[in-house]
Backbone:
């Protein structure tokens, strides 16, 4: 395992790369959730929190804050895991500096898909898109940023 400071003076770039990719996922999640809220006929779970006359589009504001907190923290954790597991020392695969890390993120991204498609099949394309974005952000982009 590498020390916190590499020979070339870089400080914990894996964790910063995880944060950046997490924030990018927060932006994508906010767009997806806002679309789902606006298209929903009567989202009872939101109506319990917001006033009846509040437009659904305004729910994007607290959603964006929550998504930014969640995904940024998740990115920090994934970046830390990438560093602790020394994933950069594994074999490359499909353009990612770490094949096993890419495979792990793909498995994590695919886990909720069957449930989501069975329960809410009408919006399957959003779930597949978000899963693909998850793999692209944390399986490819984060390791590539961490290696720069």
Residues:
């Amino acid at each position: 395992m590498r020390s916190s400071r590499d020979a070339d003076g870089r400080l914990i770039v894996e964790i910063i790369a995880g944060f950046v990719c997490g924030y990018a996922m927060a932006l994508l999640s906010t767009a997806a959730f806002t679309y789902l809220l606006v298209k929903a006929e009567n989202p009872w779970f939101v109506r319990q929190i917001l006033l009846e006359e509040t437009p659904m589009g305004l729910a994007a504001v607290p959603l964006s804050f929550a998504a930014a907190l969640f995904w940024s923290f998740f990115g920090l954790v994934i970046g830390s895991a990438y560093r602790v597991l020394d994933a950069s020392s594994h074999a490359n695969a499909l353009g990612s500096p770490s094949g096993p890390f890419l495979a792990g993120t793909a498995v994590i991204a695919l886990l909720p898909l069957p449930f989501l498609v069975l329960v809410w099949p009408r919006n399957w394309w959003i779930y597949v898109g978000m899963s693909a974005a998850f793999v692209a952000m944390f399986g490819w982009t984060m390791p590539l940023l961490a290696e720069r």
